[in-house]
Amino acid sequence: MIKNGNVVFTRDFENRKRHAEQEQKLKEVEKRIPPGYRSEIRMYQKYCKETRQLETIESLMDFLFVSITEEAVKKNTWEKRVVALRKYFSVTYDISFDEEIRKTVANIRKLYQEDDRKRLKKETGKLPVDLDELLNIIDILDTRAKAICLVNLDTANRPNEMVNLKIQDFQLDGRIVNVFLQKQDKWHNKRLQPGTVRAVQEYIKEYGLQPQDYFIGRRSKGGNFEGVKISETAYRKQLKKWTGYTPYNFRKTMVAFMHSAGADLSTIAKQTGHRSLETLDKHYLNVADATVDKFMDYKK
Fold first, then answer.
1. What is the spatial distance between Cα 97 and Cα 101, in angstroms, rounded to a whole number?
2. Statement: residue 283 has pLDDT above 70
3. N or C: which end of the chain has fewer CB within 10 A?
4. Do the beta carbons of residue 290 and residue 296 sit within 8 Å?
5. Strand, helix or coil for residue 117
């Protein structure tokens, strides 16, 4: 190839082309807003519409202020809101949080330090449920629902981990399912109970599932099964409909059961996929009331 009297080697041209394509792809990745942020973004957009404000830094600070003073959201929810909207403004309006904006956010955050808002800093989260009661509920479900619920219980999967499972991720002979942990950006093997393996085998046989099918899939209004990926929101609603509980109730129930059975933190983390033992201990392992009562019974 000849250009302006200079010889341009084909390999150099291909390299430059590939580098440009990579740079473009990385820019697209950087501009991508995670699905988990959409709910907070919609709430902000709705607030702007209701208050007849444009989407500006001023209306954003107003929204964050009102979120505490009027909506009284939990602090951990508020912090997620800040992260989501910071990304939204960066992608949509090319506005980054400079020192002045960060200072304003920090001052708004200090509202949580006031006496009448200290309870908003409590991190309660979803609670574990009675395992026997949950298993009784699962036992009477249909083949598909039963298999999905048992897998969620065994693996203590997060919603995003459940909706991304495919049939090809199961190694039923070895009682293993390979789960992609988005938080750690890696694949991780989780164990399955023999009863769960049988339930999954029955599900695969009854529905004629193929390796490329998504494990949860969906049923159309006509009752036909489609092995497609569903949203995390749809999955939460489905699990709630089947059992009355959320995926995080399932997750905490398995953690609590393993802990009460004598498993140490490392063993629990190996099954759940927790990277931090401190997070596992702080947010998942609360001593049950029944255990406290047992050691307070001085009237025996």
1. 5
2. no
3. C
4. no
5. helix
* Residue ranges of domains in the chain: 35-121, 131-293
Burial class of residue 33, CB neighbours in 10 A (0-12, 13-18, 19+): middle
**Is 40 within 8 Å of 86 (Cβ atoms)?**
no
Residues in the chain, total: 300
Q: What are the backbone dihedrals phi and psi of residue 264, each rounded to the nearest 5 degrees, phi first?
A: -85, 175
Cα 104 from Cα 64, distance rounded (Å): 10
The 3-class secondary structure across 288-300, one letter per residue, is CHHHHHHHHCCCC
Q: Check if the beta carbon of residue 160 is closer than 8 Å to that of residue 250.
A: no
- 102-123 residues labelled b (16+ CB within 10 A) or e (exposed): eebbeebeebbeeeeeeebeee
pLDDT given at position 273:
84
State the Cα–Cα distance between residues 129 and 149, nearest whole angstrom.
Answer: 14
> For domain 131-293, is the CATH number 1.10.443.10?
yes
Chain centroid to CA 273 = 13
Phi-psi region of 223 (alpha: psi -120 to 50; beta: other; left: phi over 0): left
* Diameter of the chain measured on Cα atoms: 100
Q: Over the stretch 216-229, which tens digit does the pLDDT of each residue have? A: 999 877 778 899 99
Instruction: Name the DSSP letter for residue 165.
Output: -
CB 151 within 8 A of CB 250: no
CB atoms within 10 A of CB 30: 9
The letter for the amino acid at 96 is S
